[in-house]
Amino acid sequence: MTRRWPDLGALELLVGVDDHGGLSAASRKTGMAQPNASRAIKQLEQHFGMPLLQRSPTGSTLTPQGTVIAHWARKVLADTDKLLDIVDGLRADRSVELTVVASMTVAEHLVPRWLGTFRGLHPEVRIHLQVTNSSQVFDRIADGSCDVGFVESPTVPRNLHSVVVGRDRLVLVVPADHPWARRRKPLTAAELAAAPLIVREPGSGTRTTLDLALQDYERSAPLIELASAAAIRTSVLGGVGPAVLSTLAVADQVQSGDFRVVEVDGLDLHRSLRAVWRPPRQLIGPAGELVRLARRDGTG
After folding, report:
1. What is the CA radius of gyration of the chain?
2. Dihedral through CA 149, CA 95, CA 114, CA 150, nearest 10?
3. Both 25 and 122 in a single domain?
4. DSSP SS3 for 113
5. Each residue of 231-241: pLDDT tens digit?
6. Residue ranges making up the domain that contains 84
7. What are 87-117's pLDDT values in tens digits?
8. Are residue 39 and residue 182 in the same domain, yes or no?
């Protein structure tokens, strides 16, 4: 004969009678209306085939049998709470979220590949990507609004941890019909510094790298400041002027012949691409897994 499980809500009421001295108080604690509580206890008594409450005009108390069952009901309810905690934990694991913030160059050319691979390995993780410049990446990591960031800035704030996930190089590009495209000798760093350029906005990793590389030279004012590599590429193609951009950002245009790379003598524009995060030093969970994947992927 198959035995049926008792109603857990009724068991909670029975324990409540023991704890609070009556069915009325127990029903209030469990949020159940008095008539429904009375009906639930009667059904529990029918289920067990014995009286559980001694009813009187002044209230209800447990019978001896009810006292024994209430004792064991506490254990059942405690184990049920543990079960629900486990269910909550499993549900949380299935709805893990990862918020990533990346500077423009990394976001456009590398992060999609990293996130695609990550998604294939961890389909249960919901990923949110924010794209901004390096300076704002640092701000969003520091204030805790994002879990991990990726930047191409040459410096990282001391309150953040970082690791190199790849490398790239900035190059000077001009359209194919620009006079510099026909130069046989490289430009000097001083010539580059003196030339008006199309540049990224202050705070971007590309702008910071270029400014640091030319900090010992007298600089010309920028032709124009733009907030994305795409806008700068369009401006260069339109003949507005030369620009210094990541090899990642101009690879297609160089390969097609639309852009020519102009070498600059004595100027090192190699840079590291970094993942950044808040303490502690060891990054764990989905963010840590994404960084490990990015490092394995690498760019040079």
Report:
1. 34
2. 0
3. no
4. helix
5. 999 999 999 99
6. 8-93
7. 765 555 555 889 999 999 999 999 999 999 9
8. no
